[in-house]
Write a structure and sequence with these properties.
Length: 179
């Protein structure tokens, strides 16, 4: 028996919401380009988050971070978390204790969000990997929007630009003054 199912019922949410379903640079494109299902990049979850007051957002993420068990599945599954050893897992220096606790979790998750600002491509692999169902993609979507507004940079669209929080000028006045 042959059954036909609507493709939208089978796709991951991130595929449904993807603004750039075709690679921006490639050597050989296998198959025809596909139309975007979300050409304007609408993100209802992000809109809901941004409608909150900053206190509500703080509380929303604080409660979510408390659930983290520090399994690092988010790091291991993220295509842009490419460090040989994650800052959360080094012991020389030990940037944060290995213990699972509200403060340590927050430092890990906010640190990771800062690292991925302008780098996260919104693939949602972290969400799918997280056994505790933390809203990781959403956190990084907010960071991506901040990076876009502050630096006019969108991850993955221009191979010539660097993620804004991954580079610095050693002669930068603000950096030089602090060393
Ligand atoms: S959504 Fe962003 S942070 Fe999450 S796995 Fe994909 S690139 Fe990494
Ligand atoms: S969270 Fe930061 S340090 Fe850890 S792997 Fe990702 S980018 Fe690297
Ligand atoms: S996958 Fe989820 S529970 Fe595991 S470290 Fe990441 S946020 Fe925490």
């Amino acid at each position: 028996m042959e059954r036909h199912l609507p493709v939208a019922d089978l796709l991951e949410d991130t595929c449904l919401h993807c603004q750039h379903p075709n690679p921006v640079t490639f050597d050989e494109l296998l198959g025809p380009e596909v139309p975007s299902r979300n050409p304007e990049g609408e993100d209802a979850e992000l809109a809901r988050l941004e409608a909150m007051t900053s206190e509500e957002r703080r509380e929303y993420f604080r409660r979510a971070f408390e659930r983290c068990i520090r399994c690092y599945a988010c790091v291991k599954n993220c295509p842009l978390c490419f460090c040989t050893t994650c800052f959360a897992q080094t012991n020389q220096p030990e940037w944060l204790p290995r213990t699972v606790g509200a403060d340590e979790n927050e430092m890990f998750l906010l640190g990771r969000a800062m690292h991925l600002a302008g780098r996260c491509v919104q693939c949602g692999a972290c969400d799918r990997a997280c056994p505790m169902n933390l809203p990781l993609r959403l956190l990084n979507a907010k960071m991506a929007k901040e990076a876009q507004e502050a630096f006019a940079q969108v991850a993955g669209l221009d191979p010539e630009t660097q993620p804004p929080l991954s580079v610095f000028e050693s002669q930068d006045k603000d950096i030089a003054e602090h060393h």
